Amino acid sequence: MIRMNENYLKLQASYLFSEIAKRVNAYQAENPDKKIIRLGIGDVTRALPVACITALHKAVDEMAVDATFRGYGPEQGYAFLREKIAEHDFRVRGAQISPEEIFISDGSKCDVGNFQELFAFDTRVAVPDPVYPVYVDTNVMAGRTAAWKDGRYEGLVYLESTEANEYVPALPKEKVDVIYLCFPNNPTGRTVTKAQLRPWVDYARENKALILYDAAYVAFIRDASLPQSIYEIDGAPDVAVEFRSFSKTAGFTGTRCAYTVIPKQCKIYDSQGNGHSLHALWDRRHSTKFNGVSYPIQRAAEAVYSPEGQQQIRELSDYYLANAALIRTTLGKAGFKCIGGDHAPYVWVKANMDSWKFFDLMLQNADVVCTPGAGFGKCGEGYIRFSAFNSRENVETALQRVSEALKGL
Ligand SMILES: Cc1ncc(COP(=O)(O)O)c(C=O)c1O
What we know:
alpha/beta; four-stranded antiparallel β-sheet
């Protein structure tokens, strides 16, 4: 008899986005003429930068000729891309990351989700609340939690991000072994300063813990004093892994390319307390279970680092940031407290009512879809996430309708 991994039974059935889709579909079926605008799911809407498309076409043509055709590439990624990343994303900011410490992949979702395979079963895991659900669900699947109770999984340590701590959680009071952090944050849009990040690195060093730092939204940071990488903090390469993605930086959500950085000095420990190279462990895992990102896609990603590519990705993120500013200003004028949106594509709005009630109100009175904060964790209850990923025209129309709907409150 084939038996299932019963940890899957602990997962919450109504995953946030399927519940949203259910409500939106039901509303659309009842109101077929309504033009619903989606400011919910965090998928980009604008085309790939011209520099990437040009590189992609060229690489596809190379694949059509025996002399330039490429078969299996290195599982860790081509050197041409790893070198550009090390130079442009890290060394120019004083973070000494070498190309060999970078693993190219087809997405941060997979990397973040797969990484916990390297950890012992009884690893104590700390996750932010509210949180990008992948950090939690993959640890549930692996059996690192007990049951779901009162809106949380028993066995996880939740790091609360609330109005009281300005949405930057405090260090855990108990000892934990792994800590997920995400800045700029999904869903709150909150960024972190170097001074706020340093205690996390110190904590990890003191406790031989590991930080998994998700910087998927780094391209939206506009304040040069804010850290773009955790490796800008002294000592971080000993205790932190960083996840980056081309998805939001360059519109690669459908194209798929990302990377994970594991400094060679970063250690993980066996039950006797002996240190082992985390880099070597991930290299073993990655090359056993993954066969590399396709050559044309890696060439397209490389083009992000050309002068034209850099200018074009800047224009992309500027466009979405202008949308975010409109969302924030409009909701602020309507009397709602908002954070995020200045260095992130998400605006986190205090709804002054139940999250799902606000969601239904927006859907039914404004034909606008947003994301109920409660879906990201207990601390998200009473909040709503608005995403800036849409056309300016749609954002403006949506905001006019939202303003009208809110007048009636
Ligand atoms: C915080 C965070 N990390 C990772 C991802 C996934 O990135 P990718 O498209 O590279 O899988 C997302 C996507 O929304 C995200 O919000």
